[in-house]
Amino acid sequence: MPRLRSLIAALAVGAVAVAGCTSSDDSDDGAASSSSAPGATGSPGGPQGGDTLARVRANGVVRCGSREDLPGFATLDPSGRHVGFDVEFCRVIAAGVLGDANAVELRTVATADRFTALQSGEIDVLVRNTTWTAQRDGTEGARFLHPTFYDGQGMMVAADSGIDELADLSGRVVCAAGGTTTEGNVATEFARLGLEPPEVLPFDSPDLIQQAFQADRCDGWTSDRSQLIGLRSRYPQGPDALVILEGTFSKEPLAPAVRDVDVAWAQAVEWSVFATIQAEEFGLTSENVESERTSTTDPNVQRFLGVPVDGAVLDPGLGLAPDFAFQIVSQVGNYGEIYDRTIGEPLGLERGLNALWTDGGLHYAPPYR
After folding, report:
1. Would residue 34 count as lying in a domain?
2. Which residues face 363 on adjacent strands?
3. Same structural domain for residues 198 and 221?
4. Same domain flag for 235 and 260
5. Domain presence at residue 6
6. Cα–Cα distance, 84 to 94 (Å, whole number)
7. Same structural domain for residues 229 and 106?
8. Model-level pTM?
9. How far lies 97's CA from each of 11, 269, 315, 328, 368, in Å?
10. Hey, is 5 helix, strand or coil?
11. DSSP letters along 25-82, please?
């Protein structure tokens, strides 16, 4: 028995030593990797962390993955600043989590690299017109949140092409963005219609697709309808040179994504998005939220804006400050304001499915109580 006890003790010491070496080897460089940071555990940037909310607060900035080549959603203005619908939701997240909509570091990530950038910790959140699908949910290590935009795939052709409907493209050539859901959707839709599918030529960017289209390498140009509307608006020969065919042949819910392990961060990001939707339902805007905060007697609105109700401020445990919704609405606006100034008015894109549920749309925020 004494010899058995000695053996067990030796094994325990060895296990502790191995655990200590493993912990040391897994740490990354940088200030955020310090174990003294609030909530810091494991690697700050890699997939083991799961403590992004704490790191974002410690660093005072949200690293948001987006793009710079999609009109209405994410482009660069003449000064080189990122602007657009997706960019505004990056600002929403920063306002909700940090109280400062400008505390954002926009990082342009390529389509093929977006999930790698998320998994590696290069970005904290992906807000880049990315479709939530079962396969991506299950294999990309990503947790998708409430969609910011409900879209669907369409087809665009030259106005003088003689192509009037999808069936006219059977057996022809269609251009699409590579590494996206649009490639497979074309084959699926034509198979559903009992038609010979067109050949799909994939390209890395909208600019390359446009060049191929102008060189008559493809008869159709397929993407999300919102993208087609945006790209058509800046077509060199003018928007009238292109026609978007009738019909939508896929569901494309475009949603923010965080890493699967980031449960607390996911809650904070998702409820920041919900805040824009609920604010519009309450009739709160960037112009009136300040006065409503002090004058409203509606306990639902008071709770939402961080005002005490019956002497207590609601803290639902989401990792957000009590006034997070007020910060979002006052600094960025409600969902309708964001939509109108980025894609509604500039592109003439009607709300449709992106209206509130009270107006026949799909946007609905869970109750804040």
Report:
1. no
2. 356
3. yes
4. no
5. no
6. 15
7. no
8. 0.84
9. 45, 8, 14, 9, 17
10. helix
11. HTPPSSGGG-TTSTT--S-SSSTT---HHHHHHHHT-EEEEE-SEETTTEEE-TTS-E
CATH label of the domain that carries residue 174: 3.40.190.10
| Residue linked to tokens 């990309």 | 140
Q: How many domains does the chain have?
A: 2
Phi, psi of 233 (to 5 degrees): -65, -25
Among 166, 173, 209, smallest CA distance to 191 is for 166
* Final residue belonging to a domain, choices 218, 250, 282: 250
Burial degree of 63 (CB within 10 A; 0-12, 13-18, 19+): buried
Torsion of CA 247, 250, 251, 252, to 10 degrees: -100
The number of helices, as runs of H, and strands, as runs of E, in the chain is 14, 15
Where among 230, 250, 270 does a domain terminate?
Answer: 250
The verdict on 233 and 127 lying in the same domain is no
Place of tokens 């959603």: 73
pLDDT digits (tens, 9 = 90+) for 287-318: 999 999 999 999 999 999 999 999 999 999 99
Q: Which residue has the tokens 């034509």?
A: 190
pLDDT tens for 102-137 read: 999 999 999 999 999 999 999 999 999 999 999 999
Give the chain's length: 369
Going from the C-alpha of 312 to that of each of 59, 94, 260, 278, 299, the distances in angstroms are 30, 26, 34, 21, 11
Q: CB 196: neighbour CB atoms within 10 A?
A: 12
What residue numbers bound the domain in which 220 lies? 153-250
**Residue 296 falls inside a structural domain:** yes
Please choose, from the candidates 357, 270, 289, the residue with its C-alpha nearest in 3D space to the C-alpha of residue 96: 270
First to last CA, the chain: 60
Residue position matching structure tokens 């990792």? 319
Q: What is the pLDDT of residues 86-97, one digit of tens each?
A: 999 999 999 999
Neighbours of 171 (CB within 10 A): 12
**Distance set, CA 291 to CA 113, 229, 331 (Å):** 44, 37, 14
